[in-house]
Every structure is written in structure tokens, then in C-alpha cells.
Design a protein that fits this description.
Layout (H helix, E strand, L loop, with lengths): L2 H26 L10 E5 L6 H12 L3 E5 L12 H4 L2 E4 L2 H10 L3 E5 L5 E2 L9 E6 L16 E4 L11 H16 L10
Parallel strand pairs: 1-2, 1-6, 2-3, 4-6, 4-7, 5-7
Helix pairs in contact: 2-5
Amino acid sequence: MGPHKVRQMMKAEREMAKRRFRRQRNKNYLAKPGIHECVIVLDHLKPSYNIGKIFRSADAFGAREIHLVGIDFFDPAPGMGGFKWVPAIFHKNFFSCYTDLINKDYIPFILEPGKGNSITKTQLPHKSAFIFGHEEFGISFEPDLFSQIRRLTIPQFGKSQSLNVSVAASIILYEYTRQHGKVDKKNQNS
């Protein structure tokens, strides 16, 4: 198969992903906040694969909502329906997202391999916002310019000191729910 054919197939797949996104975006308007106070921030992630999987994990762990920075669309298919259930809030830039979170009394955290406090030794506040950057380039902003941002790390013991972003999001959501326990499902909408 030649490069022209591959480009055509990739373009067709991208168009199908956009159609899936538009269909599910309408359902997302009806999504209710999860039972936990934590939120996820996705900063300029690639529109394929990881975002949908993070919505799936956010739904599984009861995250309140997901903020998407600089993301116009993504393929919801890998999320197995998670995009329908977790509210999505779209931002053009990180500053507007940061301002929104701080105004709602959230403590924002970035996760960096080998930097910051271990998630297993940090008491995560109820109103935690976990920020994940682009799979290749990381976060789009200089964290030192945002005084409220704290650094966390996920302990790793192998030679490769990085995790797939959807895996890292699942780990931090698990740790958050482990620390904060179960929430009574009868009161999840209050």
C-alpha cells in the first residue's frame, strides 16, 4: 500500500472520529457530574485513543468532570461510552481552565516522573484537579507561572520512567478514590 493510500485511510478515519464525536457530544450535554469531587484536565492531548480511554476511567472512578484544553474534538470510541456520562468542559487555553478551577476552590496538580511528592505519600484534597499534558510534548504552559499548582509523581521502579497518559490518569483516579473511600450512591447527585 502506497503513502497516498495510507493518507486517504487516515483522513477517512479522522472524519469518522469527528462524526462519532459530534453524535456523542450531544449526549454529553446531559452528563451528570460524578460522585467524587476530583476533576481531570487534559491539556492539548492528541485526538485519538487516550482521551476516550480517560473518559472511560473517569466514569468508572466517579470523577466530577473532565476539562479539555486546546482540544476541539477527539475519538470517543475507545471510551466505550464514557463520554456520554462524564461532563466535558472545553477551554481554548490553560489560563481560562486554571482560573475556572481556582475560582471553584480546586487544588491543581501536575504529574511529572521523578518530580514532586509521591501520590502514595500525599493526602489528596477532596477538590483535586489532575492535569495531564500532551503524550509527546507534555503540558503546554510553564507551571511555575501558576502559583497554586502542585507537583506529584507516580512511583515507578523500572528503567522507563514514563507511563501512557491514560494509564497515569487511571492510577491517580484509583489513588484518589482509595483515599476518599466510597460515596453513597443515593447521594451522588447532591
